[in-house]
Amino acid sequence: MAVRHSCAKFSLPVEDPKQESSRSIFLKATWHPTTFSLAVTDGHDAWVCHASEGEVKLRAEQWDQPVGEYISLVERYLGFQQDGSSYGFDDAGNGQRRLSWTFEREGMKLEWRWKLQPAPNAKKTTAEILDFLMDANIKLSDEVVRKTQTFEKLKLEAERCLQQSERFKNEKSEFESTVYNKFVVVLNSKKAKLRELRDRIAKLESKGKSPVKEEEEKELDRSSDNTILYEGSDEEKNMQIDSENE
Questions:
Q1: 54, 61, 6: which is closest to 28 by C-alpha?
Q2: Which of 150, 122, 143, 163 is nearest to 40 (CA)?
Q3: Can you tell me the distance from the alpha carbon of 167 to that of 159, in angstroms, rounded to the nearest whole number?
Q4: What are the CA-CA distances from residue 32 to residues 3, 8, 56, 68 (Å)?
Q5: Which one, 42, 93, 95, 125, has least CB within 10 Å?
Q6: pTM for the model
Q7: How far apart are CA 124 and CA 112, in angstroms?
Q8: What is the pLDDT of residues 78-96, one digit of tens each?
Q9: Tell me, what's the pLDDT at 230?
């Protein structure tokens, strides 16, 4: 498992009621698979805690947890301030501080604690925490810029797709309207032809003729109209006259 880093601001209740209603600390943590380290500053002083593998294993056994599960739960509450959890950073004597937080487990409210020692170089520790926060802020700002740019690109693409979809919709409606109008024209033409045939059948039936017989008569009339009377050429007529004179 890769080494992870976190840094968060925690709001704490005041120790003296005459002071401000809340005070804050910044906690930077480095998380390893079987151990972790903490660095805390209030802006003036700094404290550190380097939890060894033996200490972590002992704490995990006390709570009947695997080491990895124990570290994950600690990281959950010290990586970010959790709502519903009460945090404390109390004086433990000799310049030491006791960091504590509460959580619920199986319906019971529990409290975990770790003791921190004064940092050998408080200014250096505080500077490291502030540098980490500034670097994280820069990375976060860059990420926000990239996300914003990506969002704008996606927004433009979505608008373009919407316009294209609207154009396709209009073209489809226009095409359907054109096809429907043409279909109506053809349908009306067929209906008119059917009405004409129906009227003809009705007239023929009123005259006592069947449509088939009327069609045969029409065909016969057309044949008669196409018949041509042949009277012969002038030469044939002259030959006929000479034959009669003999």
A1: 6
A2: 122
A3: 12
A4: 5, 18, 11, 9
A5: 93
A6: 0.60
A7: 28
A8: 999 998 899 999 999 999 9
A9: 45
